[in-house]
Amino acid sequence: MPLPNRIRPDGSLMADPARGLLLGNRGGRFHDPSTRALPRRIQASRQWICCVLSFKGRRRQVWGTGYTELFFCDEVTALAAGHRPCMECRRADALAYREALVRGHVFAHTPLFPQIDARLDAERRDGFLKRRHLLPAWSLPDGAMVEIAESPAPVALRGDYAFPWSPAGYGAPLPRPQGTVAVLTPPTTLAALANGYRPLWHTTIHEPAL
After folding, report:
1. How far is CA 208 from CA 170, 175, 198, in A?
2. How far apart are CA 155 and CA 62, in angstroms?
3. I want to staple 167 with a disulfide (CB 3.0 to 4.6 A). Which of 18, 31, 52, 184 is the partner?
């Protein structure tokens, strides 16, 4: 029986056997090690990060007494949920993410990562609920995750297409939406994507051949 430690693009937890590309955490432990049931809390701190699955040979008991391990289909999913790259195991990516924010004039000066975490925290949630941002679809960069009426699942934007999300990857593409859409990816991360940050996509993403 899989643990409820897979993360949807809206940041909520679910149980699914699919193996994702990234691990992460939310600043510590918020599950109960004795029951390992779906927790009511959604975080231990404002530090929501996404990490590589293997780092320096470390071994962990998932949902034991340490932090609450979370798993993501890919980085596009993690970013939509409100996570950012880890500065320890993904240092180059974390610095590239921050540099993209500076290029996008999100911060006047190079921020410390706790400053980025505080900004993301305000943008990604309203209490226990996911905060959605209504934005024009034309303004969104590749890698943004949105909700549209044409798909029961959130879709990731890439090129001229919108790819329906699942824990195991992406489905057949739909046309990129028009008009105003409900965006799951926080505006800070949208700015990073628009200014050169390139996230890790699941291998199931395929744009139709011309």
Report:
1. 13, 11, 20
2. 29
3. 18
- Tell me: pLDDT of 162 over 90: yes
Residues 6+ apart with CB under 8 A from 7: 13, 14, 24, 70, 71, 72, 77, 78, 81
Q: What percentage of residues in the chain have a pLDDT greater than 70?
A: 99
* 3-state secondary structure labels for all residues of the chain: CCCCCEECCCCCEECCCCCCCEEEECCCCCCCCCCCCCCCCCCCCCCCEEECCCCCCCCCCCCCCCCCCEEECCHHHHHHHCCEECCCCCHHHHHHHHHHHHHCCCCCCCCCHHHHHHHHHHHHEECCEECCEEEEHHHCCCCCEEECCCCCCCEEEECCEEEEEECCEECCCEECCCCEEEECCCHHHHHHHHCCCCCCCCCCCCCCCC
Q: What is the pLDDT of residue 128?
A: 83
Q: How far apart are CA 85 and CA 47, in angstroms?
A: 10
The answer on pLDDT for 7 being more than 70 is yes
Q: How far apart are CA 193 and CA 100, in angstroms?
A: 7
User: What does the chain come to in residues?
Assistant: 210
* Count of CA atoms in the C-beta half-sphere (13 A) of 166: 13
CA pseudo-torsion sign 56, 68, 76, 118: negative
Given a cut of 60, whether residue 210 has pLDDT beyond it is no
Q: Which amino acid is at 78?
A: A
